[in-house]
């Protein structure tokens, strides 16, 4: 798999395809079993984030530097729909039904967008403006169907100025976001990603894993802001930019600016 300036990628829900976005203005779809690129879609600006629809694998949503989310038909490569925002769309995720898209932009705003799962039509539902004096790009938007802390669906966002935010989601009000807690980390020079951790146990706590400029991987508990750091992984030689769990949530992959990927195995609870 080769693509210049890769910005994001996503697996289809049936695990047959990977979609990738790039600063070279292209979106590519790859058939995993054959390792072949089966579709190239050419845009007019850098493609910054990408997600398959969780129910209909033929819908592909892409955020770009032209301040848009564009929905493509994977089979034809044609645009189905698009909607415009105030700034570059830098991160995004779907809810589990595919009826909502959550996205963040280069000014630190987080949006909820309603999506028609049959037609791919988009409509802006809510906008959550950044409270920070300095507008910082959103590097992570991640949805989780259930949180023990919120007793319902939640959204994690991370911005380049080091702000981790944890929202509860009201599905009854088209994905309205309510800030539950936040954590301020050191500002980042790179677009470093964060991720929810697996639901480790029934104990109270909301664990987040984040890359760092100092070449370490950090684990934080958002419910303990004064003593938030609960673990640190060392092994990289460059800033850790990417973080991702496998679907079984027993393996964590971290990637750094030097091109190294380390896969960590989660210790069994003893």
* Cα-to-Cα separation, first versus last residue: 39 Å
CATH class of the largest domain: Mainly Beta
Remind me, CATH topology of the largest domain?
Methylamine Dehydrogenase, Chain H
List low-confidence stretches.
none
- In CATH, what is the homologous superfamily of the largest domain? YVTN repeat-like/Quinoprotein amine dehydrogenase
Task: Please tell me the overall pLDDT.
Answer: 88
> Helix and strand succession?
EEEEEEEEEEEEEEEEEEEEEEE
Q: Give the strand tally.
A: 23
WD repeats: 1-40, 233-270
Pfam families: WD40 (PF00400)
GO molecular function, one term: promoter-specific chromatin binding
Protein name: Anaphase-promoting complex subunit 4 WD40 domain-containing protein
Mind explaining what this structure looks like?
The chain is mostly beta strands and about 270 residues long. Helices cover about 0% and strands about 55% of the residues. The chain contains no helices and 23 strands. It has strands at about 5-10, 15-20, 25-30, 35-40, 45-50, 60-65, 70-75, 80-85, 90-95, 100-105, 110-115, 120-130, 140-145, 150-160, 165-170, 175-185, 195, 205-210, 215-220, 230-235, 240-245, 250-255, 260-265. The mean pLDDT is about 90. This is Anaphase-promoting complex subunit 4 WD40 domain-containing protein. One of its GO terms (cellular component) is nucleus.
Brief summary:
The protein has 270 residues and is mainly beta.
Tell me the layout of helices and strands.
Elements: E1 6-11, E2 17-22, E3 26-31, E4 36-42, E5 47-52, E6 59-64, E7 68-73, E8 79-84, E9 89-94, E10 100-105, E11 110-115, E12 122-128, E13 138-147, E14 152-159, E15 163-170, E16 176-184, E17 194-196, E18 207-211, E19 216-221, E20 229-234, E21 240-245, E22 251-256, E23 261-265
Antiparallel strand pairs: 1-2, 2-3, 3-4, 5-6, 6-7, 7-8, 9-10, 10-11, 11-12, 13-14, 14-15, 15-16, 17-18, 18-19, 19-20, 21-22, 22-23
């Amino acid at each position: 798999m080769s693509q210049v300036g890769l910005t994001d990628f996503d697996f289809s829900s049936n695990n047959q395809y990977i979609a990738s976005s790039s600063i070279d203005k292209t979106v590519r779809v790859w058939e995993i079993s054959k390792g072949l690129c089966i579709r190239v879609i050419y845009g007019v600006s850098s493609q910054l984030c990408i997600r398959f629809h969780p129910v209909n694998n033929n819908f592909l949503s892409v955020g770009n530097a032209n301040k848009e989310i564009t929905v493509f038909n994977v089979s034809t490569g044609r645009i189905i729909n698009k909607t415009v925002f105030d700034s570059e769309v830098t991160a995004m995720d779907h809810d589990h039904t595919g009826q909502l898209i959550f996205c963040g932009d280069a000014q630190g705003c987080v949006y909820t967008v309603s999506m028609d799962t049959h037609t791919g039509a988009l409509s802006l539902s809510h906008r959550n403006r950044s409270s920070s004096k300095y507008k910082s790009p959103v590097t992570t938007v991640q949805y989780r169907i259930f949180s023990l802390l919120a007793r319902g669906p939640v959204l994690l966002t991370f911005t380049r100025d080091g702000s981790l935010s944890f929202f509860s989601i009201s599905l009854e009000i088209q994905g309205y976001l309510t800030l539950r807690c936040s954590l301020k980390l050191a500002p980042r020079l790179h677009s470093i990603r964060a991720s929810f951790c697996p639901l480790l146990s029934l104990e109270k706590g909301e664990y987040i894993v984040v890359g760092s400029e100092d070449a370490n991987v950090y684990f934080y508990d958002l419910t303990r802001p004064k003593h938030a750091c609960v673990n640190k992984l060392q092994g990289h030689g460059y800033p850790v930019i990417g973080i991702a769990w496998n679907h079984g949530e027993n393996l964590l992959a971290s990637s750094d600016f030097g091109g190294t990927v380390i896969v960590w195995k989660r210790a069994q609870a003893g």
